[in-house]
Structure formats: C-alpha cells, structure tokens
C-alpha cells in the first residue's frame, strides 16, 4: 500500500526520522573516546525524563529485562512483595516475581481502573512485622489504558509508616505522562525504549534511589547480567561492563534532544490533549450504548493509549483485521482476559493532531465496514477538541 503504515498500537511506536537517521552510524569502539561522549550524554540526560538526579541503569534488553533487574537487585529469596492487579502487564510482572522465587501478594483489581491506594495502605498497616519488602505497581497499565496515581501510592506507604521499597513500571508512560521518580519517593523505576521514548525496542532502564542501592547490598537473589554494582561503577567513567547497544544509544541521544526541544511539560500536555480528543470520539461513537472507553475512572484515564470496549457479540480482532486490510493501520489487540473484547488506540510518542485524526478516521470507517454499531461523528467530536485547544494556545 502506498503511503505510511499507521502504527497505532501502544508500543512499539512510530520512530521519528530524526531518530532513525541518528542511528544510521557506523558502530564504534565502545571503549574509545567517541563512545564516552555519547555515554556521558545519555546517562546524564535520561535522568530528567525520570525526574531524578540519581543514576539510571541502561540495559540492552526489552522492558521485561528491566522488570527482572528491579527485583533481583533488591530482593532475597522468598521475600513478600505487594503487587496490584491493574491488568495484563501487572499480572506478567507478578508471574515473573513468582518465577524468581519471591512471594507476591496480588491485590485484586477490576481491569477498568488504576491502583486503589487505600487498599495498599490497608494491607501495609496490617503488616506490623514488615514482612512485605516491596510494593510494585504499573504506572500506566497498557492493557487497559488506566494510569495509576503514584503520588497517592507513595502517600499510602507513608501513612502506613511502612519501610517497603516502591517499584514502579513506567514502560508505557515514560516520556508521555508526567512522572517524578525523586519527588514521589520511588525506589526503582522501570522503563523501556519503544513507547514514549520513540525508539525501536531493545533498551530498558532502572532509575534507582539511594535506598534501592542500599537494599541491593544485602539482597540475595542471584544476579549477574542485571547486577547494578558493576554497571553503576562503570557508568561513572562513561563506560559499560559489557557491550552496550551502541546504535540504540545514538537514537536515545537524539530522542532526548527532541524531548527537551519540545519541553517535557509540552510533551505531557500534547499526550493529554490527544487522549482527551480520543475519548471525545469514543464517547460520541458509543452515544447509543455501543462502544465505550474501558477505563471507568476519569482520574485514571491514560495519556498514552485508549482501550475501547466493543459491545457484546462483536469481535475486536475481526474488527482490527478489517482496519489493517483496508486502511493499513495497526491497532492494539485485547490482552489475556480482554482478548477479542477490546482494541487499543496508541496515541503516544512521535505523534501530532493530524496523525490522531487519520487514526480516528480509520477507526470510524472501520466500524462502518465491520458492521459495529456506532454513532457517526466521533472523529468530528475529536476535531472540535483539537481545534479548541489550538485556538487557546494561539
Ligand atoms: C510493553 C510493556 C511491558 C513489556 O515490555 P517489553 O519491552 O515487551 O518486555 C511491560 N509493562 C508495560 C506497562 C508495558 O507497556
């Protein structure tokens, strides 16, 4: 098909041409002087995106690797960790913890809202003996489009006066939704390259607090590749203990430049605007009781994606196939218990108003072709949100 493919899944996201060009470089000696300049730049500048002045560890791995790293560096065999079932990704992280020999406690969620901080506070308050060693939450649950309030989770831990570490997955929020590692007292923040950071898959991150580094000194889970100690020591001299993903780091350097040129606050506002316009479209389409936004709590609406629930009796994967075949657009599928029930619109990363309108037009035309009941004019409703926002900043 002529023209560009619309990659509107919530990650991997569209990689901007500037980032592609920045990576189109000969691979260099990762122990030479040129590499040191690159490493120093990314290791310093990545901190701002996490909202930290502490080190950020960069792994040549997908996000799952950084999940594992967060746990093996801070926990010991059998440790109890409190996790929250926001959706598919929280469930995968919990399974990973079990496989590592930890003892996760999983607070039940309904997959239609983010974390209920009061439930975390109640459980921690009960834990008088401080057996729970970490609280693990997913900031932006990519399977549901619900974003949890990490500031509220922090406040809950503080009110319970509990010493547990706070571990947060920001793989689909970093660089899209406001995040403050230091201010929110997060101990390990897990990130990935292929979502808000606009890079191809292949890099992941651990932002680490001093308390997390301290905990890593006595943590006894076996680790080698993921171990922070050698990495942090090498990074101080702008080198890596093993071969880094050099060309992805060139891309990261360019992506960080793009984020700082736009300004992080503007980046967050752009994502919030696209999310609001998308919800205006979905709400309009569903006006006659058809499709709806999966996330039910307005305080948890995600800035980076919107999951759309189809009416009973319609299959979201059949619908996505119609959209792909007719309009060359990929929409995200429903995951685990949401399979066939929802599709997900990614509106994160390198994205603008007209790309969103192309996306929403494709979604609306897809409803028509797939025979899904909807009320015409959702794309128009989104245009009104975008035009009003543009007028306000004129
Ligand atoms: C994508 C994603 C992951 C998994 O990351 P991989 O890079 O696929 O390993 C984990 N958590 C969240 C919230 C995600 O969006």
UniProtKB/TrEMBL annotation:
<protein>
    <submittedName>
        <fullName>Serine--glyoxylate aminotransferase</fullName>
    </submittedName>
</protein>
<feature type="domain" description="Aminotransferase class V">
    <location>
        <begin position="7"/>
        <end position="325"/>
    </location>
</feature>
<dbReference type="InterPro" id="IPR015422">
    <property type="entry name" value="PyrdxlP-dep_Trfase_small"/>
</dbReference>
<feature type="modified residue" description="N6-(pyridoxal phosphate)lysine">
    <location>
        <position position="195"/>
    </location>
</feature>
<dbReference type="Pfam" id="PF00266">
    <property type="entry name" value="Aminotran_5"/>
</dbReference>
<comment type="similarity">
    <text>Belongs to the class-V pyridoxal-phosphate-dependent aminotransferase family.</text>
</comment>
<dbReference type="GO" id="GO:0004760">
    <property type="term" value="F:L-serine-pyruvate transaminase activity"/>
</dbReference>
<dbReference type="InterPro" id="IPR015424">
    <property type="entry name" value="PyrdxlP-dep_Trfase"/>
</dbReference>
<dbReference type="GO" id="GO:0019265">
    <property type="term" value="P:glycine biosynthetic process, by transamination of glyoxylate"/>
</dbReference>
<dbReference type="GO" id="GO:0008453">
    <property type="term" value="F:alanine-glyoxylate transaminase activity"/>
</dbReference>
<dbReference type="InterPro" id="IPR024169">
    <property type="entry name" value="SP_NH2Trfase/AEP_transaminase"/>
</dbReference>
<dbReference type="InterPro" id="IPR000192">
    <property type="entry name" value="Aminotrans_V_dom"/>
</dbReference>
<feature type="binding site">
    <location>
        <position position="344"/>
    </location>
    <ligand>
        <name>substrate</name>
    </ligand>
</feature>
<keyword id="KW-0808">Transferase</keyword>
<keyword id="KW-0663">Pyridoxal phosphate</keyword>
<keyword id="KW-0032">Aminotransferase</keyword>
<dbReference type="InterPro" id="IPR015421">
    <property type="entry name" value="PyrdxlP-dep_Trfase_major"/>
</dbReference>
């Amino acid at each position: 098909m002529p023209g560009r493919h619309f990659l509107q899944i919530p990650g991997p996201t569209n990689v901007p041409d500037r980032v592609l060009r920045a990576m189109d470089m000969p691979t260099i000696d990762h122990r030479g002087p040129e590499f040191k300049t690159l490493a120093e730049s990314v290791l310093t500048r990545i901190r701002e995106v996490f909202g930290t002045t502490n080190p950020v560890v960069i792994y040549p791995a997908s996000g799952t690797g950084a999940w594992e790293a967060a746990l093996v560096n801070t926990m010991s065999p059998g440790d109890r960790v409190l996790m929250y079932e926001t959706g598919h990704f929280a469930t995968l992280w919990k399974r990973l913890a079990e496989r590592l020999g930890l003892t996760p406690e999983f607070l039940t969620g309904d997959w239609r809202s983010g974390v209920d901080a009061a439930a975390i506070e109640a459980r921690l308050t009960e834990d008088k003996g401080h057996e729970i060693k970490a609280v693990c939450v997913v900031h932006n649950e990519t399977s549901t489009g619900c974003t949890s309030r990490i500031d509220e989770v922090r406040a809950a831990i503080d009110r319970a006066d509990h010493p547990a570490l706070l571990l947060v997955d920001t793989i689909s929020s970093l660089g899209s939704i406001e995040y403050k590692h230091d201010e929110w007292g997060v101990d390990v923040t897990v990130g990935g390259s292929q979502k808000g950071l606009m890079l191809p898959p292949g890099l992941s991150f651990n932002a680490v607090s001093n308390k997390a580094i301290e905990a890593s000194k006595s943590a006894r889970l076996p680790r080698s590749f993921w171990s922070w100690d050698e990495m942090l020591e090498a990074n101080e001299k702008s080198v890596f203990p093993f071969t880094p993903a050099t060309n992805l780091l060139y891309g990261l350097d360019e992506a960080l430049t793009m984020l700082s040129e736009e300004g992080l606050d503007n980046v967050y506002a752009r994502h919030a605007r696209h999310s609001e316009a998308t919800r205006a479209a979905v709400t309009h389409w569903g006006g006659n009781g058809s499709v709806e936004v999966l996330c039910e709590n307005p305080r948890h609406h995600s800035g980076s994606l919107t999951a759309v629930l189809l009416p009973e009796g319609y299959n979201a994967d059949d619908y996505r196939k119609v959209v792909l075949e007719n309009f060359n657009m990929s929409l995200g599928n429903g995951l685990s218990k949401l399979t066939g029930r929802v599709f997900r619109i990614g509106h994160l990363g390198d994205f603008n108003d007209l790309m969103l309108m192309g996306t929403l037009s494709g979604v609306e035309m897809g409803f028509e072709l797939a025979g899904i009941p909807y009320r015409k004019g959702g794309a128009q409703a989104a245009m009104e949100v975008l035009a009003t926002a543009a007028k306000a900043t004129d």
